[in-house]
Design brief:
heterodimer, A: 273 residues, mainly alpha, two-stranded parallel sheet, 1% strand, B: 306 residues, alpha/beta, Rossmann fold, Alpha-Beta Plaits, 2 domains, six-stranded mixed sheet, four-stranded antiparallel sheet, 11 helices, 13 strands
């Protein structure tokens, strides 16, 4: 008879001291670590900067061309470089929103949302920590994008460009606010739809297609409806050209964002992960 | 300790988990066994709050998972090695995990060392084999030094070395007084690792007892007797209340009598005995007998055995 000797158990060590930390600060730290440990974040930010420069260049060139050979609407004349940046954001926003959106839907696509929910079980805390980290990244990014767009426009416009420090600060802040709120909005929608493609399509329709379609009908009523959409409110906030004051534009956008976040948290609480 | 009270989960009109009431005690390895679709994973998902129970509740250390301030300090769970973002390096995954629950970052390198992944810690998880992901999942379960540990099929994809290691890990965790709840479809593995078994079939508990009892209750120990006059002996043994099955012309399988009694009785009626041996049922047989009627996606073999 041989005697089998049970090998010793694997030691897993102990954590010293009483547990502390966690909560919302812990959730924020975790989201911050997760966001920066993915290459897609870095590529997304790099891509946004590149696209911003490119689109600003194209728009500046269009302005210069129209001034030399005016179309039916007449020459645009000397424009503020910030206006070019604001216009370019219309296109570049989708790259920035995708970075924020992937924090939610990327985790659904890979299944890692179930890990996240084991670490931070309260659904509201989980989504708000993601939103807060997204805003902490998106807002400075938006300011930087405004600068990139303005500098490119300034070079390209040459004599047709106007730089005003006050305008630039205004543009940077409103673009920052717009992209921050829209990021949280798409994250809320992402938590409801759980799919990157579905959410981006929804955002694309709401931000670009629907406002234009509504305005093109020529109906005053539908035009008013279009002005109530988050993207239109955002556009009016950035351009300061709305049928309502900038503060109201901000309030409309914030209300949509709050509704989407509430919807996202509600779905997270009701549906199985 | 894990406490389940009337835990029920319905998906549409299908009941996945049906009024599960159960206590998983500390200081033991409790095996959670059942055929595919029996509700094992759903039960574990409800314990950590990923699925909402339709009725009943699941408590860990007397509290609901959703109410734990630092859940990873109390419950370590490896439910699916795929619950990781493939684009993230292993260390970053564990670091985010540690930060979320106020666990010092030194602990991350400690658990990477315990599971043997320190050399690939900076590599992205997408490049990992299933076995490496399984180890990463185990590292995640250990990172919070929790009292309660749950593993869903932990040896999937592991090499024999890894299987042995997991077995030692489970035994070690239980020896330290922790609650270890581990599901598996590998019955032989359970026989070597678990102290107690909970057998699940179609969402209901079929057995909840020490592993030896489950084996005994499932098929019962028996005695094999070989004799040229098997029929005569069978009649005599049946007369004293034993259950006798004639397996071949010469061979009997007897339950309810010891080897000694059978030998003496054969002698009394002067029947020659060519072989007399005790047969200990395997967990596998016990399991098949218990779950045969409750196989969700059966191929018919389990039924055919009865």
């Amino acid at each position: 008879m041989t005697t089998s000797v049970e090998p010793p158990g694997v030691r897993i060590g102990h954590l010293p001291g009483t547990p502390s930390g966690g909560g919302l600060p812990g959730a924020l730290a975790a989201e911050w670590t997760k966001l920066w440990s993915l290459r897609s974040t870095w590529w997304g930010l790099f891509g946004a900067g590149l696209l911003m420069g490119l689109v600003s260049m194209i728009m500046a060139e269009a302005t210069v061309a129209n001034n030399k050979d005016p179309g039916p609407e007449g020459p645009p004349g000397v424009v503020s470089v910030g206006d070019i940046a604001t216009g370019a954001v219309e296109t570049v926003q989708f790259v920035v929103l995708a970075i924020a959106l992937l924090m939610v839907t990327g985790e659904y696509a890979t299944g890692s949302i179930r890990a996240t929910l084991q670490w931070v079980p309260p659904r509201g805390r989980m989504l708000w920590s993601k939103a807060a980290v997204a805003v902490a990244v998106v807002f400075p990014t938006a300011v930087l994008l405004t600068l990139i767009g303005s500098v490119v426009a300034w070079f390209w416009l040459d004599e047709w460009g106007r730089v005003d420090a006050g305008d630039l600060v205004h543009d940077a802040l409103t673009i920052g606010l717009y992209l921050s709120l829209m990021s949280v909005l798409v994250m809320g929608v992402g938590a409801m739809l759980r799919s990157t493609a579905a959410t981006l399509t929804t955002a694309f329709i709401f931000v670009l297609v629907l406002p234009i379609t509504l305005v093109n009908t020529g109906s005053e009523l539908l035009k008013d409806v279009a002005d109530g959409l988050p993207s239109s409110a955002g556009r009016h906030m950035m351009n300061g050209d709305g049928p309502y004051p900038t503060v109201v534009a901000l309030a409309i956008l914030a209300a949509w964002t709050a509704a989407a976040a509430w919807g996202g948290i509600t779905v997270l609480r009701r549906r199985d992960a | 300790m894990i406490t389940l009270r009337g835990l029920t989960k319905r998906f549409g009109d299908k009941t996945a988990v049906d009024g599960l009431t159960l206590e998983v005690a500390a200081g033991k390895v409790t095996g959670f066994l059942g055929p595919n679709g029996a509700g094992k994973s759903t039960t574990m998902r409800m314990i950590v709050g990923l699925d909402r129970p339709t009725a009943g509740e699941a408590l860990v250390g007397g509290r609901r998972y959703l109410g734990l301030p630092r859940p990873l300090r109390e419950v370590g769970a490896l439910l699916d090695a795929g619950f990781v973002h493939p684009g993230r390096p292993a260390r970053a995954h564990l670091l985010a995990m540690a930060r979320s629950n106020g666990i010092p970052r030194t602990r991350v390198d400690e658990v990477l060392g315990i599971v043997g992944l320190e050399s690939v810690a900076g590599k992205r998880v997408g490049s990992f084999s299933l076995g490496m992901r399984q180890r990463l999942g185990i590292a995640g379960a250990l990172v919070g030094d929790p009292e309660v540990l749950m593993f869903d099929e932990p040896v999937n994809g592991l090499d024999p070395d890894g299987v042995l290691w997991v077995r030692r890990l489970m035994r070690g965790l239980a020896a330290e007084g922790r609650t270890v709840f581990v599901s598996s479809h590998l019955m032989s593995e359970m026989q070597l690792t678990a102290d107690r078994l909970v057998v699940l079939g179609r969402g209901r508990v079929l057995a909840d007892a020490p592993i030896a009892d489950v084996i005994a209750r499932g098929s019962g120990d028996s005695v094999r007797v070989r004799s040229p006059r098997a029929a005569e002996l069978a009649a005599r043994l049946a007369a004293v209340g034993a259950t006798v099955r004639r397996t071949t012309d010469e061979e009997l399988q007897v339950t309810g009598l010891s080897v000694d009694r059978i030998g003496l009785m054969a002698h009394e009626i002067s029947v020659p005995v060519l072989e007399l041996s005790a047969v200990t049922a395997s967990l596998e047989e016990a399991y098949m007998n218990l779950t045969g009627a409750s196989v969700e996606y059966g191929t018919g073999t389990a039924e055919a055995r009865r």
